[in-house]
């Protein structure tokens, strides 16, 4: 059991002063406000909840920055994929674990305490399944165990190379499963995370271009009530191809053909009509936004203002992991809206309200829903995921409450995080994860070999 005391803490009901939080077996068992610290308390200035990166492709952390030289007259998401395929085809299981371990360490150092791993690098380099079909999932679970991050594993079902059941691209051979294989992969993945505290499992049909309608119908029951994540409407070409195939745009097709509800998370959903935006918000599903990656890949900008005004739920993910940080994703989300509308504080919840607080609350709640977490924030019964901020940072000094969130999100980066508890374990102190150096050494060895 551990007892922590914070001069100020952001609780579900709002900011509170002199807050004592008691942790037992990784869970918050007591939250008391307005109480002085005791000699048994570990004392800190300010606490906020850790939030989830609801969408990650861990292996892509190893190729961050490698796709910034164009070999094409017009460089797009579709040409970027060729670099990604080449990198993915070279990775061994131990490389995946090394890259994922450093990524999860970095996530924790930067305020994320849970990851939704949209995991599609399944098979050996020639495309044949490993003896343990979930070998790569075992490696992801190992990285989560070493780092301490909460894991929602989302094995991806990927069967085709395009709409209408097109044959897969050779570069996709490590991703490909049929429905029966995917069922076996899912069962083995459940076993892979079985001993990992706080973990859970969902499914991730990759996209409508990668999964045929009958296959999607067959795969959905395999979720067994867990979360369902799917890429949708990330690119204009994807929307155009979906229209040519079905006469419907991707989001509309999903809403028309399936009972999309709070279990679902539509990743990106960038290119929607006004009717789609309103309908997705009404469904209760989460829009999984990845603003840094969406900017990096030139995807476009999500209609966040209209969606939030329609009471839609959002969370944020790090996707390609080209840059990792809670503040980076939330800042980019707002800045994209500012550039689009040529206004400031576009996503604030109302007059005189903090934009940082609005974004943080939305990402906290939406991320918890998307990853099937029954509680969000610092409350009894919740996983003890706690982040403290360094109030000596020049952009935080002298600030309190929502002004701290605004300073962190809009004027700092990872260096403003001081300590992090994940599942009750203190894994970051003074901004440094306890396994940072070992994780960096492992990552560096793997990437040097891959790039050689």
Automatic annotation (TrEMBL):
Domain Amidohydrolase-related: 47-425
All residue ranges annotated as the Formimidoylglutamate deiminase N-terminal domain in the record: 4-44
Enzyme Commission identifier(s): 3.5.3.13
Keywords carried by this UniProt record: Hydrolase, Metal-binding, Zinc
UniProt keyword tRNA-binding present: no
Gene3D superfamilies (alphabetical): Metal-dependent hydrolases, Urease, subunit C, domain 1
CDD domains: Met_dep_hydrolase_E
Pfam families: Amidohydro_1, HutF_N
Cofactors (names): Zn(2+)
Gene Ontology MF: a single term: formimidoylglutamate deiminase activity
Presence of the UniProt keyword Ion transport in the record: no
The name this protein goes by in its record: Formimidoylglutamate deiminase
Lineage, highest ranks first: Bacteria, Pseudomonadati, Pseudomonadota, Alphaproteobacteria, Hyphomicrobiales
């Amino acid at each position: 059991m551990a007892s922590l005391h914070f001069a100020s803490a952001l609780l579900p009901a709002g900011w509170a002063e002199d807050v004592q939080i008691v942790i037992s077996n990784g869970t918050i068992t007591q939250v008391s406000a307005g109480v002085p610290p005791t000699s048994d308390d570990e004392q800190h200035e300010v606490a906020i909840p850790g939030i989830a990166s609801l969408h990650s492709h861990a292996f892509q952390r190893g190729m961050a920055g490698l796709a910034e030289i164009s070999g094409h007259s017009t460089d797009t998401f579709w040409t970027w994929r060729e670099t990604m395929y080449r990198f993915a085809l070279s990775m061994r299981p131990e490389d995946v674990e090394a890259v994922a371990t450093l990524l999860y360490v970095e996530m924790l150092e930067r305020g994320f305490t849970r990851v939704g791993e949209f995991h599609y690098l399944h098979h050996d380099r020639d495309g044949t399944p490993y003896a343990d079909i979930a070998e790569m999932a075992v490696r992801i679970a190992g990285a989560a165990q070493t780092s301490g991050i909460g894991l929602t594993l989302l094995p991806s079902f990927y069967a085709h190379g395009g709409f209408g059941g097109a044959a897969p691209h050779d570069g996709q051979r490590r991703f490909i499963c049929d429905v029966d294989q995917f069922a076996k992969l899912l069962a083995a993945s459940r076993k892979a995370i079985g001993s990992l505290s706080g973990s859970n499992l969902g499914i991730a049909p990759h996209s409508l271009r990668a999964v045929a309608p009958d296959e999607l119908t067959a795969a959905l029951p395999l979720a067994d009530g867990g979360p369902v994540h799917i890429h949708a409407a990330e690119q204009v070409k994807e929307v155009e191809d979906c229209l040519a195939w079905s006469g419907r745009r991707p989001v509309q097709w999903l809403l028309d053909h399936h009972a999309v509800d709070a279990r679902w998370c539509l990743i990106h959903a960038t290119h929607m009509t006004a009717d789609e935006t309103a309908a997705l918000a009404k469904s209760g599903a989460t829009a999984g936004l990845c603003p840094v990656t969406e900017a990096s890949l030139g995807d476009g900008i999500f209609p966040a203002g209209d969606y939030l005004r329609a009471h839609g739920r959002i969370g944020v993910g790090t996707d390609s992991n080209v840059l990792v940080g809670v503040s980076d994703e939330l800042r980019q989300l707002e800045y994209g809206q500012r550039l689009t509308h040529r206004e400031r504080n576009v996503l604030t919840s109302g007059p005189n309200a903090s934009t940082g607080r609005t974004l943080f609350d939305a990402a906290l709640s939406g991320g918890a829903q998307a990853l099937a977490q029954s509680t969000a924030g610092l409350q009894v019964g919740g996983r003890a995921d706690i982040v403290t901020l360094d109030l000596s940072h020049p952009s935080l000094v002298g600030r309190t409450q929502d002004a701290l969130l605004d300073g962190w999100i809009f004027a700092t980066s990872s260096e403003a995080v001081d300590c992090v508890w994940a599942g009750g374990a203190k894994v970051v102190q003074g901004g440094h994860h306890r396994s940072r150096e070992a994780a960096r050494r492992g990552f560096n060895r793997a990437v040097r070999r891959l790039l050689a």
